[in-house]
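Before the break, one more example. Copy the sequence into your notebook; we will annotate it together after we see the structure.
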Amino acid sequence: MALRVPKFPQGEHMHVFDALADPVRRTVLERLAEGEANSGELVEAVQTRYKISQAAVSQHLKVLRDTGLAVARPEGTRRIYRLDCSAFLELDAWLARIRPQFQAEPTMREGKAPPTPKRRLDLGPMPDKAELQSMLVEAEGQVSWAEQRWDTVADIAADRSAENAPLAARLLCRLAKSLRDGRPVRDLALVATHLADERAAVSRSVLEEFWKVGLVSADLRTAVVDHLHRRFRHGQTGKTSLQTRLDIIDALAKLHRATGDPAVSQVISTIVSTGQQRTADEE
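Here is what the structure looks like once it is written out:
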C-alpha cells in the first residue's frame, strides 16, 4: 500500500510538523497533556522555561489552533484550551504506516534482510464490494467477527484510491461497537479522511455512520466531536462547504440528543456561532 502523508489543516501556511518543531509550542502541548488550562496558565508554563512575552505566547497558541493541535472554548473572559485529539490521531495513523520500517532497523543494521512486509494480520483475501455490503448490513447489530476482520477492513479504508474505501470506512463505524480494544480509537482518523471526500454523496454517507461511533464510549465520543469540529473549522468555502457545515451540525445534534452530553452541546453552540460569521463573510 502506498504511504500517504496526512493532509493536516495548513492554517497560516503552517504544517503540523512545523508547529511541533517549535519548543515553545511543544511546552504548551506537554502542559495540555496534563489537562485543560486557560491561557494565563499556559503563559506561566512557558515562561518558567523560556524568556518570552505573553503576546508571543498568544501567537504560538494561535498556531496550535490553526493547525488543529489544540482547541479553545470561551469561559467568561478567558479561553480554556485542551488538546485536539483528532490531529494526534491522524498523526498516529500516519506514523503507524511507517513504524514497521523503523522497527526493522536493528535487523537491517546487522546486515540481515528485513522481514517481508505484510498486512497487520494475515486474514486471507480482501473482501470484494458485495462481501463488504453484506458485512455492512450484518454489522448494524453486534457481530462476533469484528475483532477478526477489523484490520483487513481498516487497510481497505486507508487506501483512499480504492473503490471500496468509503464502504470500508462506513463498515468500521458500525464495527466499533463490537470491539472492546483500542483499535476503533486508533483507526478513527482513517475513517475521518473520508469526510473530506470531494464526492458529496460519499462524504455524507460516511458522516451518517461516523457520528454513531460517538455512542460507543466517552473516549470515542470525544474523538468524533473533535474530528467534526476540526472538519467544520477547516472546510473550504463555497456552497458545498455550506452544506457540509450544515450536515456536521446535524450529526452533532443527533449525537447530543442520543447522549445528552453537555460537551457536545457546547461544541454545537461554538460552531453555529462560527458558521454564522463565515456565512456572512462569504456573502
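The mean pLDDT is 79. The radius of gyration is 20 Å. Try to locate both features in your own notes.
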